[in-house]
């Protein structure tokens, strides 16, 4: 039960914020605050702060203009502080993350009367590794020999003058306390290749055993996170931390209340995070190079006792794995019936997906051999890593501490890659449990510049199991919010894909926008539908100039790159000069140029794909007309979605109505949502797809959209 003290704190904070910003209360925002506070306030804990009730999960769909950030912050900050928990706000995009930490939270703190501290959490790869910088700047023969071991991780033994100068400047700035080792705070942009050499993964990091630990930029930043009330980060970093068991980067889940903004991305992000993949050719070359690395380590400094024997056995296992991978490649190439997936200027990709995720027995046996080989290699590498850590603690006689420090990152990276391969072949070697969604398993034959590689992959088709295991059941509390969480007016799709607890509080709050007064949804007369690709494209080319007319800013969204380019090159004259293709610019540069043209009283039209259907903000005249080329059904070739459809069909369901239509409904809402970004925005949305009128599912899709005024021919 939410205490009166916390209720009063939330109410006072909201009133103060509205008065300080001279704003009026919004019904949707008030309801959002109430539902989140009620859910989090229902958590029971003992005197030590441990949760004693089931995890509390609140899911709130709130459209653009609701003021979601203010809503979830004012509801959750007082609760988190009262319960002595850390509030972790995770966004899916950098743009929203920057807005939350640079604008929204400072304004809330200034006007609400709430006192709280804020920090931005970044992944380890955003910070300088002093150990690597030290190695790069050493010039002795011994150091060069050690650096040679890192070539597989992208180290360059012979630094060019520019890199040498940059690294010396960084060392001086660190020593003079003029820089904190954060890539984003270095005064000029650092080339990706140069930065790659300066960072370490968790597998390469020796933690408190590192001679530079006390000055380590990552651990200093990590230590600061334990002392703040609100942490802002991204979905990927939260998932990485949870996959490592929690508490590796962020505070432990039991001490956190998580807010997932743009939370409709969470299930797909989780699936991607836990997917497995290996490139057989690339992995074979890595195993051969790693064998040489191990032999080089032993040649430089013979290691005594068991650890020396483990190195020799690991090198032997690598040679066996190279042979086993060759057998597997030959077997896969003969078993797979590849079909063309995509063709590019550099080559093509062919795909084969195993129906129902079932691997033939012969292939499963070979996968089992690879699993056993990688398992034994992981075991040996794990023992070596543990022994090297002991050596760094001066607990192993005969092993020099300095040598252990130099070798540890090399073996640590080996261990990480071995573990990744083990997970893949483990997935391929076992049958899926009956009654549970199967694992999707597929192959890609990648051909580029005259060479080939066979990519072996597996992935869960639903994220429910892993999110229950790593998030819903471990966190103190979770809030998920987005403008698009329902499909066809229900939360069923999100529940299925995310595995939400049955008692999760799911609410949809009203938008402050008066959609019927502000925008028109139009479906014009067309001779063809998207089933006739060439005819549909020709009609778009014919109608587009008149549809857009003289509006200053317009956005045209396509479901396929080919149609986008065909329409662009089919346009003629002055109108085509107004159009910018998403392919030709980064998203940031595209938006910048578009706004610049309109600010100079010009006219600009953006042609974009699915990635522009959400996450971009074009208020007012920057976007007065959104044109959607066709209903945004998912690409049927995606192996995970295809496997999910197959599973639903096997259970007597209708994949088209259970997956394709709800997914398309969400994408339509997201795409149309590019039009109204402020309460005074107006404009038009046009869908060039008559299936909205002629097919039975069309009415359901239309009804799932906000209540725009309709003009349907």
Automatic annotation (TrEMBL):
<dbReference type="Pfam" id="PF13307">
    <property type="entry name" value="Helicase_C_2"/>
</dbReference>
<keyword id="KW-0411">Iron-sulfur</keyword>
<dbReference type="Pfam" id="PF06733">
    <property type="entry name" value="DEAD_2"/>
</dbReference>
<keyword id="KW-0547">Nucleotide-binding</keyword>
<keyword id="KW-0067">ATP-binding</keyword>
<comment type="similarity">
    <text>Belongs to the helicase family. DinG subfamily. Type 1 sub-subfamily.</text>
</comment>
<feature type="binding site">
    <location>
        <position position="205"/>
    </location>
    <ligand>
        <name>[4Fe-4S] cluster</name>
    </ligand>
</feature>
<keyword id="KW-0347">Helicase</keyword>
<dbReference type="InterPro" id="IPR027417">
    <property type="entry name" value="P-loop_NTPase"/>
</dbReference>
<keyword id="KW-0004">4Fe-4S</keyword>
<keyword id="KW-0408">Iron</keyword>
<dbReference type="InterPro" id="IPR006555">
    <property type="entry name" value="ATP-dep_Helicase_C"/>
</dbReference>
<feature type="binding site">
    <location>
        <position position="210"/>
    </location>
    <ligand>
        <name>[4Fe-4S] cluster</name>
    </ligand>
</feature>
<keyword id="KW-0378">Hydrolase</keyword>
<dbReference type="GO" id="GO:0004386">
    <property type="term" value="F:helicase activity"/>
</dbReference>
<feature type="binding site">
    <location>
        <position position="129"/>
    </location>
    <ligand>
        <name>[4Fe-4S] cluster</name>
    </ligand>
</feature>
<dbReference type="InterPro" id="IPR014013">
    <property type="entry name" value="Helic_SF1/SF2_ATP-bd_DinG/Rad3"/>
</dbReference>
<keyword id="KW-0413">Isomerase</keyword>
<feature type="domain" description="Helicase ATP-binding">
    <location>
        <begin position="15"/>
        <end position="342"/>
    </location>
</feature>
<comment type="function">
    <text>DNA-dependent ATPase and 5'-3' DNA helicase. Unwinds D-loops, R-loops, forked DNA and G-quadruplex DNA.</text>
</comment>
<dbReference type="InterPro" id="IPR045028">
    <property type="entry name" value="DinG/Rad3-like"/>
</dbReference>
<keyword id="KW-0238">DNA-binding</keyword>
<dbReference type="InterPro" id="IPR039000">
    <property type="entry name" value="DinG_proteobact"/>
</dbReference>
<feature type="binding site">
    <location>
        <position position="216"/>
    </location>
    <ligand>
        <name>[4Fe-4S] cluster</name>
    </ligand>
</feature>
<keyword id="KW-0479">Metal-binding</keyword>
<dbReference type="InterPro" id="IPR010614">
    <property type="entry name" value="RAD3-like_helicase_DEAD"/>
</dbReference>
<protein>
    <recommendedName>
        <fullName>ATP-dependent DNA helicase DinG</fullName>
        <ecNumber>5.6.2.3</ecNumber>
    </recommendedName>
</protein>
């Amino acid at each position: 039960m939410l205490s009166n003290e916390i209720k009063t704190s939330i109410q006072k904070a909201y009133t103060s914020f509205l008065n300080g910003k001279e704003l009026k209360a919004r019904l949707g925002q008030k309801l959002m605050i109430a539902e989140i506070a009620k859910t989090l306030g229902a958590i029971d804990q003992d005197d030590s702060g441990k949760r004693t009730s089931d995890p509390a999960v609140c899911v709130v769909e709130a459209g653009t203009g609701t003021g979601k950030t203010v809503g979830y912050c004012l509801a959750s900050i007082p609760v988190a502080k009262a319960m002595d928990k850390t509030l972790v706000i995770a966004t899916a995009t950098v743009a929203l993350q920057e807005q939350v930490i640079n604008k929204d939270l400072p304004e809330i703190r200034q006007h609400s009367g709430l006192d709280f501290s804020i920090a931005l959490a970044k992944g380890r790869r955003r910070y300088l590794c002093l150990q690597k910088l030290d190695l790069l700047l050493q010039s002795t023969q011994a150091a060069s020999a050690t650096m040679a071991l890192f070539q597989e991780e992208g180290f360059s033994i012979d630094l060019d003058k520019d890199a040498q100068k940059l690294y010396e400047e960084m060392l001086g700035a660190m020593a003079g306390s003029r820089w904190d080792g954060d890539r984003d705070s270095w005064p000029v942009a650092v080339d990706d290749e140069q930065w790659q050499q300066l960072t370490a993964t968790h597998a390469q990091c020796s933690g408190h055993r590192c001679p530079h630990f006390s000055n380590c930029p990552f651990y200093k930043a990590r230590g600061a996170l334990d002392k703040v009330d609100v942490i802002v980060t991204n979905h990927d970093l939260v998932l990485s931390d949870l996959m490592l068991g929690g508490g590796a980067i962020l505070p432990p889940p039991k001490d956190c209340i998580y807010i997932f903004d743009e939370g409709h991305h969470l299930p797909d992000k989780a699936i991607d995070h836990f997917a497995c993949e290996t490139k057989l050719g690339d992995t074979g070359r890595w195993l051969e190079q790693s064998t040489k690395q191990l032999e080089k380590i032993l040649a430089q400094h013979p290691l005594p006792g068991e650890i020396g024997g483990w190195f020799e056995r690991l090198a032997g296992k690598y040679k066996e794995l190279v042979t086993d991978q060759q057998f597997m490649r030959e077997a896969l190439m003969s078993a797979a019936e590849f079909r063309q997936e995509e063709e590019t200027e550099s080559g093509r990709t062919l795909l084969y997906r195993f129906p129902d995720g079932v691997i033939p027995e012969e292939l499963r046996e070979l996968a089992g051999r690879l699993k056993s080989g990688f398992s034994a290699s992981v075991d040996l590498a794990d023992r070596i890593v543990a022994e090297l850590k002991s050596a760094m603690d001066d607990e192993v006689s005969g092993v020099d501490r300095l040598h252990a420090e130099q070798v540890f990152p090399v073996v640590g990276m080996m261990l990480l890659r071995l573990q990744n391969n083990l997970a893949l072949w483990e997935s391929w070697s076992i049958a899926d449990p009956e009654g549970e969604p199967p694992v999707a398993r597929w192959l890609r034959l990648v051909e580029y510049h005259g060479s080939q590689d066979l990519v072996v992959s597996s992935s869960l088709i639903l994220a429910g199991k892993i999110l229950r295991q790593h998030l819903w059941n471990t966190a103190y509390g979770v809030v998920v919010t987005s403008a698009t969480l329902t499909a066809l007016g229900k939360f069923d799709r999100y529940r299925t894909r995310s595995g939400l607890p049955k008692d999760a509080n799911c609410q949809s709050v009203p938008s402050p926008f008066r959609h019927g007064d502000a925008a028109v949804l139009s479906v014009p007369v067309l001779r063809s539908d998207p089933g006739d690709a060439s005819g549909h494209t020709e009609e778009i080319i014919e109608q587009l100039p008149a549809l857009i007319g003289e509006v200053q800013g317009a956005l045209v969204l396509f479901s396929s790159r080919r149609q986008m380019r065909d329409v662009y090159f089919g346009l003629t004259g002055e109108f085509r000069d107004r159009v910018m293709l998403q392919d030709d610019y980064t998203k940031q540069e595209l938006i910048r140029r578009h706004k610049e043209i309109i600010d100079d009283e010009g006219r600009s039209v953006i042609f974009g794909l699915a990635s522009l259907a959400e996450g971009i903000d074009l208020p007012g005249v920057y976007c007065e007309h959104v044109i959607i080329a066709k209903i945004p059904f998912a690409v049927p070739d995606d192996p995970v979605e295809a496997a999910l459809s197959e599973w639903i069909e096997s259970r007597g369901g209708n994949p088209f109505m259970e997956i394709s239509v709800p997914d398309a409904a969400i994408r339509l809402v997201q795409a149309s949502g590019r039009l109204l970004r402020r309460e005074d925005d107006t404009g038009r949305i046009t869908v060039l797809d008559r299936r909205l009128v002629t097919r039975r599912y069309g009415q359901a899709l239309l009804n799932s959209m906000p209540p725009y005024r309709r003009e349907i021919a």
